[in-house]
Write a structure and sequence with these properties.
Elements: H1 2-12, H2 25-31, E1 41-47, E2 49-55, H3 65-78, H4 82-101, H5 116-132, H6 148-161, H7 165-172, H8 174-180
Antiparallel strand pairs: 1-2
Helix pairs in contact: 3-4, 4-5
Length: about 180
């Protein structure tokens, strides 16, 4: 409730100043502004001596583990690292399901899909993500027979069927969807 109240105060009042001090990264990530323009965001870091660091862009700011997973997925896609992509996608789906549906298990997310076919496809993808994210071979050879674009397309389809396309776009970006999925 406090988080929602603070977010409401910040978004509805352009004139007041807010000083929020926290040691909790999760709390900070939830209340930080979407724009750094005209905002004084500072991190105090202590390494012997305290340093005051002004944050002026998202790249300089803290990120959540979930955001880091999406950044990792971008990296893996850009560098065509298919073997590692399986595990990253699995972790994103697990986190998404636990956070949005309070799932104890990634398999439970199938209950959020309305069509039987979508459930079967989701479970197939999930099984593939598990099996292929635990390859015990010390090479970068993928044994699944899939390419990274096909895998990403299947991953995107899960979010579409969960009615979470905007969520996918927020973390992946529209330009890649336009280039790769249409």
């Amino acid at each position: 409730m406090i988080l929602a109240e603070i977010q409401d105060l910040i978004s509805n009042d352009e004139k007041d100043q807010f000083f929020i001090l926290t040691h909790n990264n999760h709390f900070y990530v939830q209340i930080r502004p979407s724009s750094y323009k005209n905002k004084g965001m500072f991190h105090l870091r202590r390494a012997g001596k305290t340093h005051v660091i002004r944050i002026t862009a998202p790249k300089d700011d803290l990120s959540s583990i979930y955001e880091d997973l999406w950044n990792e997925l971008h990296f893996l896609y850009d560098h065509k690292r298919l073997v590692s992509t399986w595990n990253c996608m699995r972790r994103i789906l697990e986190t998404y399901g636990r956070f949005n549906f309070a799932n104890g298990s990634p398999r439970d997310m199938k209950n959020e899909l309305s069509a039987r076919t979508d459930r079967v496809l989701y479970l197939s993808l999930l099984k593939s993500l598990h099996v292929n994210s635990h390859i015990g071979v010390d090479t970068d050879l993928d044994l699944s027979g899939r390419d990274i674009v096909t895998l990403l397309h299947s991953f995107y389809d899960v979010f579409v069927n969960l009615k979470a396309t905007k969520h996918f776009v927020a973390y992946w970006g529209e330009e890649l969807i336009e280039n790769n999925f249409q």
